[in-house]
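Protocol step 4 of 6: structure prediction from sequence.
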Amino acid sequence: MKLLRAIANDTRGRILLAALVAGIAWQAWLSLAAPGKVAPAVRQAQGQKVNVLVTLPFPPERFHVLAFQKFGRVTGTENNTVELRGVNKADLPSVARPYWVVKVDPLPNEGA
């Protein structure tokens, strides 16, 4: 209790505490917002693995492609989207979690 009181009375302590609370709130927001970025059609798809288009607010760079390769096979990029194949459904929230992911849609049929 003395430590908390000392932190609350010190300006640097209050700044550090505010930064810590803001960081935790940001991480919680990313986790809560991720399922809403995944299209219902992706969640309802048959099978354990799905093929998706991940949309970003900007053209993807090498960093983004490498980040998505942890979850599946990147087969291409076009404009602001990354084509990702073989993603486990359990990994969809992790794919959608980064702040730079706008949405995750099903990959349209190649034959259509």
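Step 5 (inspection) to follow. Residues 15 and 21 are 10 Å apart (CA to CA).
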